[in-house]
Design goal:
The protein has 158 residues and is mainly alpha-helical. The protein has eight helices and four strands.
Length: 158
């Protein structure tokens, strides 16, 4: 149960925020604060310093569309393993084109690969956006400790 909880937490920081949460435990407070802000900023569309469920869903959709290189609406194991390179190339392309910041969710490909079977709810050997969003929604609710409908730095206070 402990491994499942840790994995789901990592995925939801699905994507943006929670993937790095466990690493904050022993970190320097200033570094911790900076990293939390960076993770939230990654998917914060309106720049208010907090992440809503809608912003997280949009970041997941944008990330999923880029990682789904064959466009079939499902992620294969090979697409997941190549996610880091695909997202890095897209950031580089957007920067060169002057398109500004691309709001991707954090995509913990190694963790997703390790726990592929747990996420693949229908057992088809592929991950759909709905399967990833289901896990992300559960973790959003868990991470939103003050139940205000947003993930913010206040939710990381212990």
């Amino acid at each position: 149960m402990k491994i499942k909880t840790a994995f789901i937490a990592a995925l939801a920081g699905v994507f943006a925020v929670t993937a790095a949460a466990p690493s904050f435990a022993a970190a320097d407070p200033a570094k911790k604060e900076k990293r939390i802000h960076r993770l939230i900023k990654r998917a914060d569309l309106n720049g208010d310093g907090r992440l809503s469920q809608a912003e997280m869903s949009r970041a997941i959709a944008v990330t999923f569309a880029k990682v789904d290189t064959n466009g079939d609406g499902r992620l294969s194991a090979s697409e997941i393993s190549g996610a880091k390179a695909v997202l890095k190339a897209e950031r580089k392309r957007a920067k060169a084109a002057g398109e500004g910041r691309v709001h991707f969710a954090k995509f913990p490909a190694k963790r997703i690969s390790r726990h592929f079977d747990r996420i693949d709810a229908n057992g088809d050997g592929m991950l759909s956006k709905a399967e990833l969003e289901t896990v992300a929604a559960r973790m959003f609710k868990k991470r939103d400790r003050n139940n205000d409908g947003y993930i913010s730095t206040a939710d990381f206070a212990r």
